[in-house]
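FORM 12-B: Structure-to-Sequence Request
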């Protein structure tokens, strides 16, 4: 019992010493930065636990080693898009990411739209495929923002089906008209007492309603 406890303490102390050593090394590297560059570095806001300290040190190292990638991550995170699955090569294009972030901000006031983009990792998939195509798709969504607002406000379509229809609308915003017609048909069925709860089995039947 005492031996296991001692081993655990040794491992904890060793891990702490490694973290301190790494932190000191990163702090030394940051000394050559200007005051403005230092101000842009990530700040530690987590709990003083090894996992959170490790995550912060990784962020700090990236900010020092690949500042453009770090800035791109911050731009996307500010509009609610995580960059975990986006290639570093893509994130090096900070100016393109900045323009994309500005476009995404225009969708902030449409309930759940950015959440669906994030939950489905649509932006990540598009960016990894092609930056220009991503910009065109987001442009299309912004241009059809009022139609997307109406889609988000449809009350007779449940969330599962609405997510499917939203993904289809990302590819073709004109399909929102079909979603609105479907919402009206479902409303009529509900009036007749027909259960329209979406299941995996009936999801594909939306095309025949």
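FORM 12-B RESPONSE
SEQUENCE OUT:
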């Amino acid at each position: 019992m005492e031996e296991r406890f001692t081993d655990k303490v040794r491992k904890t102390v060793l891990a702490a010493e490694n973290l301190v050593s790494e932190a000191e090394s990163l702090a030394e590297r940051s000394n050559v930065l200007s005051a403005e560059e230092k101000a842009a570095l990530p700040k530690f806001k987590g709990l003083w636990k090894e996992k959170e300290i490790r995550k912060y040190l990784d962020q700090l190292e990236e900010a020092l080693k690949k500042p453009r990638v770090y800035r791109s991550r911050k731009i996307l995170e500010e509009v609610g898009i995580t960059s975990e699955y986006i290639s570093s090569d893509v994130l090096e294009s900070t100016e393109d990411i900045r323009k994309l972030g500005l476009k995404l901000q225009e969708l902030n006031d449409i309930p759940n739209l950015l959440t669906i983009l994030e939950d489905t990792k649509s932006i990540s998939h598009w960016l990894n495929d092609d930056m220009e195509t991503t910009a065109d798709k987001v442009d299309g969504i912004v241009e059809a923002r009022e139609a997307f607002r109406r889609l988000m406000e449809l009350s007779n379509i449940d969330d599962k089906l609405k997510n499917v229809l939203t993904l289809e609308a990302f590819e073709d915003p004109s399909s929102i008209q079909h979603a609105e017609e479907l919402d009206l048909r479902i409303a009529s069925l509900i009036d007749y007492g027909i259960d329209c709860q979406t299941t995996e089995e009936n999801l594909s039947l939306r095309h025949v309603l």
